[in-house]
Specification:
- With 397 residues, the chain is of the alpha/beta class.
- The protein has 13 helices and 17 strands.
- It has a seven-stranded mixed beta sheet, sandwiched between helices. It has a four-stranded mixed beta sheet with strand order 1-2-3-15.
- Strand 2 and strand 3 form a beta hairpin.
- Helix 11 packs parallel to helix 13 and helix 12 crosses helix 13.
- It is globular, with a radius of gyration of 22 Å.
- It starts with 10 loop residues before the first strand and ends with a helix.
């Protein structure tokens, strides 16, 4: 289906932070498959883990125990607040599980009317009918019939509006610690703390969508660990498989008390091949020094980008984000900046609020960051000159 506005560009191979196009040109990849290829391309440990598992067994179904999945679940729980994990195939599926878990929690408590979830403007939670309704963006909802009921949207950071939205049917509050698609907009730690307090006060569940921020992207394994606020339910995907499609819904035992045998399922979720990929990704990310390096390189990238912003104020208005989830709020249309960067052989991706996201693989090095800064500088200089030219012509006229 023609549902994607694809660029006329294709790649045949990649290594680390670089991609080789079918025409032989080499690009520096600061898109990472939209925060998916966290270990870059062709990471030897990930490639070998997938190949080794593929030689043994791909799929058995959840009718049987899957030892690789049990191991990955134990490791994710040990590294987080969680006590249970449900494995899915995508971020949207992980979010669907989170929504169902929150509703079921209240149903088994004798309060089946508590199904509504408070969400935030600018959010993006997936492309299923329920997750589209949770995101609430009209451009994605239009044409798909009645909007799934049960979601109440308020402004990001608006605590008073959040309080007013809580009613007898409210089940949970759902938020991204940093909105990715929404323009790399971070929820302030004090706001997240207030949400935790509201949930505790009203008997609600706090749900974090960490599909994009999770798995090292912000410099911690999970973004919630930067905030001092612990959710009851958390959705993961994107980087979890390092490029292999998988998602996960992590919960406390209390939050998952309604999710008994037969209440939820997945044919492919948690298959041995996906679990091998997930375990390989964790092997690398949990190695000593890995996340320290992400934090250092994230700070370096942000500092260098601040210099670019100061040099080109007619192109870039703001640098925002955490770790290696960086947003450039553009003065020019963000699509023009993405194209200008691509002309320099740097891949970036647009987001809301006229933002360009920079999502390098977490294994990116200082040399590659320096190379990217040069590309961004040249692209901005070219766009700045293009903006000045009409003014100069007008002055001459």
């Amino acid at each position: 289906m023609p549902t994607f506005a694809r660029v006329d560009l294709a790649f045949e191979s990649g290594e680390g932070a670089r991609l080789r196009a079918t025409d032989g040109e080499v690009y520096l990849d600061f898109t990472s498959g939209v925060a998916v290829n966290a270990l870059g391309h062709a990471h030897p440990h990930l490639v070998e883990a997938i190949a080794e598992q593929a030689r043994k067994i791909l799929h058995v179904s959840n009718l049987f125990r899957i030892p690789e999945g049990e191991r990955l679940a134990e490791r994710l729980c040990a590294a987080s607040f969680a006590e249970f994990v449900f494995f899915a195939n995508s971020g949207a599926e992980a979010m669907e599980c989170a929504i169902k878990t929150a509703r079921k929690y209240h149903a088994v408590d004798g309060r089946p009317e508590r199904v509504r979830i408070i969400t935030y403007e600018g959010a993006f939670h997936g492309r299923t009918l329920a997750t589209l309704a949770a995101g609430g963006q009209k451009k994605y909802l239009e044409g798909f019939g009645p909007v799934v009921e049960g979601f109440d949207q308020v402004g990001l950071g608006d605590l008073e509006a959040t309080k007013k939205a809580i009613g007898p049917e409210t089940a949970a509050i759902l938020i991204e610690p940093i909105q990715g698609e929404g323009g790399v907009r971070a929820a302030a730690p004090h706001f997240l703390r207030s949400l935790r307090e509201l949930c505790d006060q009203h008997g609600l569940l706090l749900v974090f969508d960490e599909v994009q921020t999770g798995m090292g992207r912000t410099g911690e394994l999970f973004a919630y660990q930067r905030t001092g606020v612990t959710p009851d339910i958390m959705a993961l995907a994107k980087a979890l498989g390092g490029g292999f499609p998988m998602g996960a819904c992590l919960t406390t035992a209390a939050a998952a008390k309604g999710m008994t045998a037969g209440t939820h399922g997945s044919t492919f979720g948690g298959n041995p091949l996906a679990m091998a990929a997930g375990n390989a990704v964790l092997d690398v990310m949990l190695a000593p020094g890995f996340l320290d390096r992400v934090r250092r390189n994230g700070l370096l990238l942000k500092q260098r980008l601040a210099e670019i912003k100061d040099r080109h104020p007619t192109v870039i208005a703001e640098v925002r984000g955490e770790g290696l989830l960086i947003g450039l709020r553009a003065v020019v249309p963000n699509g023009e900046l993405v194209e200008a960067l691509r002309a320099e052989r740097l891949l970036a991706v647009a987001a809301g609020e006229n933002v360009v996201r920079l999502l390098p693989p977490l294994i990116v090095g200082e040399e590659e960051i320096g190379e990217a800064i040069g590309m961004i500088d040249r692209a901005c200089a070219r766009l700045a000159r293009a903006r000045e030219a009409p003014r100069e012509q007008g002055a001459v006229g």
